[in-house]
Design goal:
- The protein is mostly helical and about 110 residues long.
- The chain has one domain.
- The protein is about 80% helix and about 0% strand.
- The chain has four helices and no strands.
- The radius of gyration is 15 Å and the shape is flat.
- The N and C termini lie close together (about 10 Å).
Length: about 110
C-alpha cells in the first residue's frame, strides 16, 4: 500500500510540474521555475521509490496517467482550454485505464 501512496503523490507532483511549466513562461520566472523543478525532482524520486515494489510498466503507466489526467483537467480549469464531450470521454477512458492497471497489478 505504501508504494501505491508514493505513486499517487508522484503522479500529483507530475501534474504540478506539468502545469507549473505554463507559469514559468519559458523558465523566465524564478519562483515558478524553482517550484516546477522541485516538483519534477520530487515526482521522479517518488516514482523511483514506488517502482522498487511495483512492476515498472504498471508504475510508469499509472504515473503518466495521473499526470496526464491532472494536467488536462487543470488546463481546462485554469487556462480555459476547451471542454468538449470528446475530451471528457477520453479523460474518463484514461481514468478507467489507470484504475484497471492498479486493480490488476500483482503488488
Amino acid at each position: 500500500m505504501r508504494s501505491w501512496t508514493l505513486l499517487l503523490i508522484a503522479g500529483l507532483l507530475e501534474t504540478a510540474w506539468a502545469v507549473g511549466l505554463k507559469y514559468t513562461q519559458g523558465f523566465t520566472r524564478p519562483v515558478a521555475s524553482v517550484l516546477t523543478g522541485l516538483a519534477i525532482v520530487g515526482s521522479m524520486v517518488l516514482l523511483g521509490l514506488a517502482a522498487r515494489d511495483l512492476p515498472i510498466g504498471t508504475a510508469y503507466a499509472v504515473w503518466v496517467g495521473i499526470g496526464a489526467f491532472g494536467a488536462a483537467v487543470l488546463g481546462m480549469v485554469l487556462f480555459k482550454e476547451p471542454v468538449t464531450p470528446a475530451r471528457m470521454f477520453f479523460l474518463v477512458l484514461l481514468l478507467v485505464a489507470v484504475m484497471g492497471l492498479k486493480a490488476t497489478a500483482p503488488a
